Amino acid sequence: MSESTHRKSALVSAVSYPVTRVSRGVRCVALCAVLVFAHLPATAFAQSSCPGIHVKIPNIKNSTGNIACGIFESPEGFPDKFLGSAKAITIRKIQKTKAQCFFSDIPPGTYAIAVIHDENMNGELDTNWLGVPKEGYGFSNTTIDEFGAPAFSAASFSYDGQNIDLTIRLNY
User: Fold this and answer.
1) Which residues form the signal peptide (predicted)?
2) Does this model's pTM top 0.85?
3) How many domains does the chain have?
4) In terms of residue numbers, what domain contains 22?
5) Do 115 and 87 form a contact (C-beta atoms < 8 A)?
């Protein structure tokens, strides 16, 4: 095909199919819509936007095993009867010696949280023959007592149904 024929066919196709021009305003609106929808999943699924109880567990001894968080609404079974007495349980993987637990759909009330570092992933806090924990443990709203776990009343906090951020440090 000669160069002149190629130019003719390009010219004919340009004439046969007119180009539709879109105004700058319409293009700007379309670009803004794309940017908004591109960031929508990050905004819609961000943990802090959902009302609930957010628990941060920093400075975990190692990244072996899981972190188990149990939220209790009464003294019954607190803090060691996770499976039978906790209102909700969250088990999370440890990421770089840190973990986070999140409790949603929790009605306003008074609660206490117990956290264990289940290093061997057997679902319980392992203790020695004297009953002293061999794995990390921590509680909401309190420091660790030398003589055992705190009472529910010492570890409890009021929750109003909105976002609340807690930090629980583990004792080993």
Assistant:
1) 1-46
2) no
3) 2
4) 3-44
5) no
